[in-house]
Amino acid sequence: MVALLSAFVFQEKTEVEPVFTTRLEDGRDALVAIMERVSCVQDRHGVAADEHRWKLNVGLMEAVHEWAKGMVRICLCQRIESIMR
Fold first, then answer.
1. What is the pLDDT of residues 13-46, one digit of tens each?
2. Judging by beta carbons within 10 Å of its beta carbon (0-12, 13-18, 19+), is residue 9 exposed, middle or buried?
3. How many C-beta neighbours within 10 Å does residue 60 have?
4. What is the Cβ-side half-sphere exposure of residue 24, based on CA atoms within 13 angstroms?
5. Suppose 59 and one of 7, 14, 46, 81 were both cysteines; which one would form an S-S bond, judging by CB atoms 3.0 to 4.6 Å apart?
6. Under a CB-based contact definition with an 8 Å cutoff, are residues 54 and 31 in contact?
7. Helix (H), strand (E), coil (C) string for the chain
């Protein structure tokens, strides 16, 4: 869950392609589907929405997922450092 939520708050640009488990891919796809449904409802009701507000940035999802599973701190720091380059 926390890995999926990181997609809403991570703002950095990264060249690193995250490697997702099947569950993370399914979760990401579910988030995209929910965002599309919300966007349709907003359009239907004339609610103005900021496009950037609804953009997912999945660059940190893999590292957060590993953190949540209890990855050793040094390995996690190295993974995050490579993402932030």
1. 888 888 899 999 999 999 999 988 988 888 899 8
2. exposed
3. 23
4. 21
5. 14
6. no
7. CHHHHHHHHCCCCCCCCCCCCHHHHHHHHHHHHHHHHHHHHHHHCCCCCCHHHHCCCHHHHHHHHHHHHCCCHHHHHHHHHHHHC
Q: What is the pTM of this model?
A: 0.71
Distance of CA 63 to the CA centre of its chain: 11
Q: How many CA atoms lie within 13 A of 30 on its CB side?
A: 9
Residue type at position 1: M
Pairwise CA distance, residues 27 & 40, whole Å: 20
